[in-house]
Design goal:
Layout: H1 13-16, H2 22-39, H3 43-65, H4 97-100, H5 106-109, E1 117-118, E2 122-124, E3 130-132, E4 136-142, E5 147-151, E6 156-159, E7 162-172, E8 178-179, E9 186-193, E10 199-208, H6 216-223, E11 233-239, E12 251-257, E13 265-272, E14 276-278, H7 280-289, E15 306-308
Parallel strand pairs: 1-8, 2-15, 10-13, 10-14
Antiparallel strand pairs: 3-6, 4-5, 4-11, 5-7, 6-7, 7-9, 9-10, 12-13, 12-15
């Protein structure tokens, strides 16, 4: 097909103003002109058809531009059977945990949430916690939220007539709980469970001590840190958790929750009053992995707090 433009051809003024998207308009013109040449249509008919086509395309573009912008994406929820990814900042931070998965609902609406600022407790003759810890094999896991130490079975505590078996212990920086407003450098949470599935957590507050006297148990844990996250590294030595406990065994106790999703309530908390000292280097090692992995304080909601008589 060969097309020769007539000497009498002039671009209509109304079409010239609409032909800024040159590639579209030129294509339309070429096709229509060719059709007119073959069918011997008058030039005025060609002009009218081209104007109508360009007008239709302009309306379509306006309609497309008028469509509302898509809504901002919400944090992705976990797939069925998989826990939702969560963290300590941004869209997956503590104030969004309840939105990440249905099972995290209590993170927003619970009335016995942890951690809390421990204050105004009543001093009573609390029973002593019967610690039954012994030298045990262990493995260290960097689970993406903290350093967790899984200890061999056989360790546990007895309190209120119930035996709780130690499941694992892990660390937070800074301490999640506070005592009369004071926050500590770190805290170790020792998580236990009884035969009925009830949880009890012993919290050991950690503060900076002498730099020339590193804590032996923490030193052993750091020496066995895995090189990759998500892979538990079995240690070739044993640890004795009695080394992690303070000399003075007075404590605060209250009912609370897990401090991580799903924030389950009904957890018995026992926070040791006397902090344990770590060397600055030991605190620094954890800080390189997790500069901040502490949930913000939660409302006390009028719950009862008891503490051992005497001073630490």
């Amino acid at each position: 097909m060969h097309f020769v433009r007539s000497q009498a051809w002039r671009w209509p003024v109304e079409i010239t103003g609409m032909m800024k998207p040159l590639s579209v308009a030129a294509a339309c013109l070429f096709v229509l002109a060719a059709q007119a040449q073959e069918s011997k249509e008058p030039v005025e008919v060609l002009r009218q058809r081209l104007a109508e086509r360009l007008s239709t395309k302009g309306e379509s573009a306006v309609a497309a531009a008028a469509k509302p912008a898509p809504k901002a994406a919400r944090p992705a929820k976990g797939e069925a059977g998989k826990p939702a990814h969560w963290g300590y900042a941004g869209d997956i931070g503590p104030d969004r945990w309840a939105e990440l998965a249905p099972e995290n609902r209590l993170c927003a609406v619970g009335t016995r949430q942890s951690p809390i600022d421990i204050r105004d407790g009543i001093a009573v003759e609390l029973e002593q916690i019967a610690f039954d810890y012994r030298a045990s094999s262990f493995s260290v896991l960097d689970n993406g939220h903290t350093v967790q130490v899984n200890v061999a079975p056989g360790n546990g505590i007895t309190v209120m007539g119930r035996r709780f078996e130690l499941l694992q212990f892990h660390f937070h920086r800074p301490s999640e709980e506070r005592v009369n407003g004071r926050q500590f450098d770190m805290v170790a949470h020792l998580v236990h469970r009884d035969e009925q599935g009830r949880l009890a957590v012993v919290a050991v507050l950690l503060e900076r001590g002498r730099d020339d006297k590193p804590h032996p148990l923490v030193q052993t844990v750091w020496a066995n840190l895995p090189l990759e996250k998500g892979e538990a590294l079995p240690a070739q030595v044993q640890i004795d958790l009695n080394q992690l406990l303070p000399a003075e065994r007075g404590y605060y106790t209250y009912m609370g929750s897990l401090t991580t999703p799903p924030c389950s309530e009904g957890v018995l908390w026992m926070v040791m009053r006397q902090p344990v000292a770590l060397a600055a280097q030991q605190i620094g090692i954890f800080a390189r992995l997790y500069p901040m992995n502490a949930r913000p304080l939660q409302p006390g909601s009028g719950r009862l707090i008891k503490e051992s008589l005497g001073t630490p």
